[in-house]
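Rather than argue in generalities, we reproduce a single protein record, letters for residues, whole numbers for local backbone shapes, just as it appears below:
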Amino acid sequence: MEVHVSDGGPQAAADNRATARPADEHGRGGMIVAALTSQAGSGHESEDLIDHWASFDAA
């Protein structure tokens, strides 16, 4: 199974919602996904969003 999620990326930028959160709340998702999946990666979906994907092995 493959899952895709889009967000503003690991860094807070002046024009996105991430600026309202403390700096230590950014970028942890990648570590969690890598620990739970067989493969994971990311790429630019659009100018403002990053597409994160993860593949899960069948149980």
Q: What stands out?
A: Strands lie at 2-7, 39-44, 50-55. The CA atoms of residues 3 and 53 lie 5 Å apart. The two ends are 10 Å apart (CA to CA).
